[in-house]
Design brief:
Strand content: 25-35%
CATH architecture: Sandwich
Largest sheet: 7 strands, mixed
Number of domains: 1
Radius of gyration: 18 Å
CATH superfamily: Galactose-binding domain-like
Structural class: mainly beta
Helix content: 10-25%
Strand order of the largest sheet: 2-5-13-7-8-10-9
Oligomer: single chain
Amino acid sequence: MILWSATIVCLGFGPVDLLGLKETSPGARLPAGWEIQPVKNVPPPLVSVHATDSAPVLRIEGAGTAAWLHRSFRTGAGPGGGRLRWSWRVLETPAHADLRRKDRDDSAIRLYVIFGNPRGVLSKGGRIIFYSTGSNEPPDYTGRSHVSGRIQIVRVAGADRLGEWVELEVDPEADYRRIWGRTPPRITAVGLMQDTDQTGGGAIAEVRRLELADLLPSPAGHPGIDPQLDEQPVDPSHGFSSFLASLCASLWPWAAAFLNHSSASASDFGTPLPSL
């Protein structure tokens, strides 16, 4: 009975709004809780919150520009499990971009998820999945980043449907296991990126929703939950019952921290993102 009650409590945790547009005034550069980090030696795109007839949107536009927009989670308070759901539309995309080519690897909009320590993405402490709109590559393209094998590119819809709002949903942890065959560390940051520095082409994209749903906080003692440590290989011996029994022990501290909007500053990890 206790186990089933715990199951109901954990699975009943509702979606969390990560974008925060409802709490942000139109004209603001970024939603509350978000930060921007430029790419080395490249100017950032224009970023602002716009009011529309239906809902506020985050608009990103540039040409020959690039920057990381991110919302970090305080160390030890990031979620485990869950699905990311978002809604975006591409109004302009760099015409000659191609995610398969290093000299044309541009995208009108990318959603990225950081697992583990962001400082170690280029060494051994973390990994990133980029869900990227594309241009000239196959619709189901997935491949290693030209920067590092610890960064993976997954092409998703958007640029192929110019002007349309596209609803997307992914399971980042399932994708992590599929790509790298390991149990992922906690998610430590979620972000958006637009980069047109390779082709110099123009890009305009808008995002109106980004949420984390079906949350399952990472259980204490489960491999890979420490964002300061590298991930561990998948261990099939961790059964569902033992997983669930420890699951809710970590629920309340995480929920309290997250719902109090305890987003981290860059100092939580030193350099929050690699300088690409």
